[in-house]
Amino acid sequence: MKTDAQLKKDVSAELEWEPAINVSQVGVSVKDGVVTLSGHLDTYAQKYATERAVQRVQGVRAVALELDVKLEPGHKRSDSEIAIAAETALKWHSMVPADRIQLKVERGWITLRGEVDWDYQRQNAEKALRPLLGVVGVSNGITLKVSTTPSNVASRIREAFARHAEREAKHVEVGVNGSVVTLRGTVDSWAERSAAYGAAWAAPGISSVVNEIKVQ
């Protein structure tokens, strides 16, 4: 197991390795495997890239984001300009049913509403908006349409996760209550935790996933 000092060194190196991040704007502290990031970033896309970079590092148990977005003058846009750009981005995304999604922009923060069939559609809607100029954050309130959950959905989720990380799948418990899936257990990395979460969301009829998996 890595010490906090080793983990901080690895996280800092990963942030320096990621070209989309200005590391001079990010402070890193680590305690008991929990990484805290602080600072001010120029774009929301940089904030997301920073979070993802830290999650790739082996040994990270959790991430606390104390980052905010302070737009450079050249990146600032009015809410109406952001709304128009966001609507266009959704319409041009082939994996997003734009006609089923509504959005609101307030002080650069986009809030999404609507109902779609699959989690990948919900995630792609948010993904399409992150790099837009003027955006300081995205709240994804899109819900999934209620559908029938197969009786064998728990075993299908386990099989899907095993295809991604066979050894770690043995340490993850999948509980299903109606359309809600609860994941419990321990894995070795944040990436494996995310793989289990993604496998659960890919199952048909699922409306919510509670991820209680811990990174050891």
Describe this structure in words.
The protein has helices spanning 4-17, 44-55, 79-91, 119-129, 153-164, 166-169, 190-201, and strands at 26-31, 34-41, 62-69, 101-106, 109-116, 137-140, 143-144, 172-177, 180-187, 208-215. With 216 residues, the chain is of the alpha/beta class. The protein has three domains: 4-70, Histidine-containing Protein, Chain: A, CATH 3.30.1340.30; 74-144, Histidine-containing Protein, Chain: A (2-Layer Sandwich), CATH 3.30.1340; 153-215, 2-Layer Sandwich (Histidine-containing Protein, Chain: A), CATH 3.30.1340.30. Strand 9 (180-187), helix 7 (190-201) and strand 10 form a beta-alpha-beta unit.
Structural topology:
Elements (H helix, E strand, L loop, with lengths): L3 H14 L8 E6 L2 E8 L2 H12 L6 E8 L9 H13 L9 E6 L2 E8 L2 H11 L7 E4 L2 E2 L8 H12 L1 H4 L2 E6 L2 E8 L2 H12 L6 E8 L1
Parallel strand pairs: 2-3, 5-6, 5-7, 9-10
Antiparallel strand pairs: 1-2, 4-5, 8-9
Helix pairs in contact: 5-7
